[in-house]
Each structure stands twice: as structure tokens, then as C-alpha cells.
Amino acid sequence: MRQLIVRRLLQTLPMLFFVSVVCFTMIKLAPGDPVLSFVTPNMHADDIERIRHNLGLDKPAYIQYFIWIKEMAQGNFGYSLVNHQPVLGQILERLPATAGLMGSAIALAVLLSIPLGLIAGANRNRWADKLINFISYVGISIPLFWLAILLMYLFAIKLHLLPSMGMRTIGVESAADVLKHGILPCSVLAFGFLAGYVRYIRSSTIGQLKEEYVQIQYAFGSKKSTILFRHVLKHVLLPVITLLGMSMGDLVAGAIVTETVFSWPGIGSLGMTAVKGMDYPLIMGITLFSSLMLIFGNLVADILYSFVDPRIQLKG
Amino acid sequence: MNRSKWKNVKDELFANGLGVAALLTLIVFTLGAVFAFLSGYDPNAMEAMARLKPPGAGHWFGTDDYGRDYLARALYGGRISLLVGFASMIVATGIGATIGVISGYFGGWLDNLLMRMLDVIMSIPSFLILLLLSVYLKPSVGNLIIIIALLMWMNVARVVRAETMTIKEREYVLYAKASGQSASGIIWRHILPGLVPVIIVGATNNIASAIMMESSLSFLGFGVQPPNATWGSMLNSAQGYIAQAPYLALFPGLLILLTVLSFNVLGDILRVGFEPKLMRR
């Protein structure tokens, strides 16, 4: 087991290297000379050179890369070009909003997809399956931002049931208020990957129902629903863990769009502001941060999966 | 690739109404995009007196906030959306199939290297890269196509590699090898024909995701620039008028949904048709 974890950890190294090189290159390619933001009108050319030297910008690119990595490792992600705040601080400040949104969306998607997938798989090709199948087709085909606009129109503008923007009502500090603001973004985000989960669980349910233990349970006279929710469920749940790891990428994309539409103050909308304002250090910080999340999310999912199902030997 | 597989696909297509509906939808949308000029309106012509007119005679989809005919804009927008989807699919499938075949056929260190590379590229959230690249490159239709293609080829490469690895063990390929044919000849004459089904299925799914990516990007304001519209950017501007003119948000979104849905449905039908062993839905 330890060997497996070590090997899996080693595999992430080239990924981390690649991600960091991409980010570094992009910062280097960014238009504009970073020295210029320190220059004042009455500066001598020597002063400018000294600033360049102090910033390490006169060194070769690979040395600059290592310095950059070292700074990153110490938690210095650089400073925003717009408000000159530390990048990492800004990301961490927005993290709870995004983590809350993603976490609740995942929970909602898993909770809904398990019964839907089981029912669809157990009633293969009957109307319940066809209905669920159609819904999941729509689910993978619907643009999330459109769904967001539609729900916003219906629940916020027409019915006045839910707030359409932000995370809090100004002046109100209560968890209930945040929850109320979160219902729409969370549902939209959850719907985005619900469909994939349902299809996956459906097909593994179909596979499980052919297994011997199901036949034995039938022979013992168990009811279909008992077999489904007591026995099949257990086997179907395991692969969901890897599914979670795989959907991290969609989750990031979905969060960017959802947060933008609903002005949810998370990392996604921070990223959009950064991109619109050409705030390169912030853009890179967010890219790096979410790539790290993705890589470690997958890592944790894989390791977790091999813990719960020791038959799985991760292949190199 | 033999005739019976195509017959399977045809049977599968007509066996469920969804497939026929999807095909018809795509034909209608493509014709609409090609013959967009028949709408009789210039998609960028503004008319101050006719702002935000609801759908009705004259303007079937109503008019937008600049008084432009919304149907014309939707048709011309569809032209760009479909073009981007189709072109990125071609590029992505080309790259993916080439890398997949090479990786699967030659195996060994080359395969290892290519597949590790692929893992690494897939480890970065692709949508974020899409956003980043669109910041650095000027958002033009050509750039959009290339960017989207570069983020989509990996799935095709994976399935093509797997399929190549099974095909290259077939006896006729082994025989061709033993008879001294060159690697490129074997790939071209014996392996590629067998790959057609997986490539077609992958390509169909790729169009769907390319259209989705393009519209998300345009919705966020990084796609094709105004005054030209795509379905995504139309939704972006519609957001501001959601209370007065909800139909502005309704039409483009519906068009995206129906297009992507149709490609997804067709992709599944092709997959099941080509692989009758697969469980029928």
C-alpha cells in the first residue's frame, strides 16, 4: 500500500513541473515590463537597472524559474497588478465561498444521482429509465450559464423566492441568508455533473445486477428494492469515489461560469475579474492553485479508492 | 469497416425517435446557418425605433437591445458556432488519431512518453487554459478553433490508441507485417480502416464539446468579438435585459442545447450501432 502511494506521488511530480512551467512561461509572455510599475518619472536609468537587478529580472530565465518556484513554495504567489494585494491572500480569502459551493454541489449531485442511477439501471429500457436517460442527456448538453439565467429568471425575477446575486444580503449576517443565496448556484453546478454520475451509476448497476450474489438474494426471496438499496448500492458506491476525482476539472469550469452569472464571491469570479483586468500574477496564481487542487484531488481519490477496494492495483 | 456496421447504425438510428429528431434538428440548423441571408435582415443593422420588440410577425425572434433582428443574428451566430465546432473537431480528431495510432502501434517508450504527456496535459483544468490562451491570443475565429482543438484531442487519442492495440494483434495485420510491409503501409491500409468507427464516434462527441466550449467562452466575453455574434455572446448581452426581454435569453440557449443534445444523441447511436456487443440502451 505504501509503495502504491509513493508511486502515485512520484507520478504527480511531472504534472506539477509541467503546470509550473506553463504558468511561469505565461507570466514571462505577459505583455508589459514588470519593472515599469516601480518606475517614477525622476528616476535615473541606473536606478531602473538596479530595480531590474533586485527583482532578479536580469538573470537567465531558468534561474528566474527556480527563484519563482522557491517563492511559491514559501507561499509568495506575487502581488496583484491591480490592487497590489498578495495573490495568495486574495485566493485564500475567496476559498471558503468556492469550497462551500463546490462541496454542496458535489453532495447534492451524489445524493441525487445514486437513487436515480439505481432506479434507471434496475428498470432498464422501461419508462423510468427512459425518462432519467433523457434528463441526463439534457444535463450533459445544457449550457450551465443558460440554466443559471433561466433559474434566475424564474425564481428570482418572476417568483421572487430567491435572491439572484451575491452571497449575502447587505447588512444581514446569518447562515440562513447565505444558504438562501446558495440554492441557485449550487443547483446549477450540481446539475452540470449530475448527468455524468447518473449514467455511470446506471451502467454499473446493470453490471452488478448480473452478478451471482444478486441471483442468490433473489433465490432467498429478497425483494428487488432490498437487493438494490442494500446490496447493489454498496458495490455501486465505490467507483463514485474515482468519479469525484475525475469531475474536478468540470467542477472548476462549472464554478467559473456559475460564480460569474450569480456574482458568487468565489475564486471563479475572482479569476474572471483577473482575466478581464489583465492581472497576470493573479491569473497565474489562480491557475496554479486550481491545477494543484485538481492534481491532488485525483491523487486523493485514487488512494482512497485503493484503500476501500484493495483489489485495485494502480497501474503505472 | 464493413457494410453491416453501417446498416446497424441505420437500424439503431431509426429504432428510436430521438435519433431521427436529432438528425433533423442538425439538418435544419445547418441549412439555417448556410442560408442565413434568406432571413431578409442584416444581422448587424441597428434600428433605433425597433428596440426590444417581442417575437411576432416581421421579427420572428423579436429584436435585441440595438433593434437588430434576433432571428438573423441567431442564424448568423449559428454559422460561427457550428463552424467553430466542426473545424475544431476536424483538427482535434486529426491530432488525436495521429498520436493515438502512433502510440498504439509502436508501443514501448514512445507510447509511454506520449501517454504520460497526455496525462499531464489533462491534469490542468482545460477550461482555465482556454481562458488563459484567449487572453494571450487575439480572439478570432481561427484562433478559437485552434485553441479549442488543442484542448480536445486527448480523448480521441486515448480511444484510438486502445483500438489500435487490439487491431495490431489481428492475424491479417501480423501477416502483413511478416510479409514485410512498411509500418506506414500497414497503418494506412490495415489499421486505419478498422479505426473508422471509434474515430467517427469520438468526432461526434468532440463537436458537441467544441460547441459547448465556444459558447461558454463567448458567453464570458472571450470568444468572437462584437458586432459579430455567436449563441454564447448573444446570451451574454441578453443577461442585462432578462427582466424586460426574457426571449433574448431563451432562443440562443435553446439553440445551443438542441445542437449539443443532437450531437450527443447521434454520438451514442453511432457507438451502439458500431459495437452491437455493447449493451443496448
TrEMBL record, chain A:
Spell out the CDD domains in the cross-references: TM_PBP2
Q: Where are the transmembrane segments?
A: 12-30, 101-122, 134-157, 182-200, 236-262, 282-308
The record's listing under InterPro entries reads: BPD_transp_1_N (IPR045621), MetI-like (IPR000515), MetI-like_sf (IPR035906)
- The answer to whether UniProt assigns keyword Lyase to this entry is no
Where in or outside the cell?
A: Cell membrane
Report keywords, A-Z.
Answer: Cell membrane, Membrane, Transmembrane, Transmembrane helix, Transport
Q: What is its main location?
A: membrane
Report the residue ranges that make up the ABC transmembrane type-1 domain in this protein.
Answer: 95-305
Q: How does it sit in the membrane?
A: Multi-pass membrane protein
Secretion signal: which residues? none
Q: What Pfam families does this protein's entry cite?
A: BPD_transp_1, BPD_transp_1_N
Question: What family name appears in the similarity comment?
Answer: Belongs to the binding-protein-dependent transport system permease family.
Q: What is this protein called?
A: Peptide permease
UniProtKB/TrEMBL annotation, chain B:
Report how it sits in the membrane: Multi-pass membrane protein
Q: What is its main location?
A: membrane
Q: Can the keyword Hydrolase be found in this entry's annotation?
A: no
Keyword set includes Cell membrane: yes
Task: Check the record and name the CDD domains matching this protein.
Answer: TM_PBP2
Keywords associated with the record: Cell membrane, Membrane, Transmembrane, Transmembrane helix, Transport
Top-rank lineage group of the source organism: Bacteria
- Give the ABC transmembrane type-1 domain ranges: 78-267
Pfam families (alphabetical): BPD_transp_1, OppC_N
PANTHER family recorded for this chain?
D,D-DIPEPTIDE TRANSPORT SYSTEM PERMEASE PROTEIN DDPC-RELATED, OLIGOPEPTIDE TRANSPORT SYSTEM PERMEASE PROTEIN APPC
Query: Which protein family is named in the record?
Result: Belongs to the binding-protein-dependent transport system permease family.
Q: What is this protein called?
A: Peptide ABC transporter permease
